[in-house]
What we know:
There is one protein chain. By secondary structure, the chain is mostly helical. It has 4 helices and no strands. It has a domain at 38-84: Monooxygenase, CATH 1.20.1280.290. Helix 1 (7-20) packs parallel to helix 4 (63-86), helix 2 packs parallel to helix 4 and helix 3 (40-60) runs antiparallel to helix 4. It is elongated, with a radius of gyration of 15 Å.
Amino acid sequence: xxxxxxxxxxxxxxxxxxxxxxxxxxxxxxxxxxxxxxxxxxxxxxxxxxxxxxxxxxxxxxxxxxxxxxxxxxxxxxxxxxxxxxxxx
Length: 89
């Protein structure tokens, strides 16, 4: 039915959108120096999932999965580092 669309194109667009979704939170947390409203538990679980998606992408050799999850780990990891530095309150 959708034979004219390559799966990597769909995966690439999805990867870009879900990855850049974290950018506003990173910028806001960085500028304000506050991560008060960010859940550390959620980001720990999220980062674990992202690492597993990265491993999955590596096992499949899927460039969209590998690139997106590498960038996403950097973005969500930045938020986690800021959260740990500024306290858990």
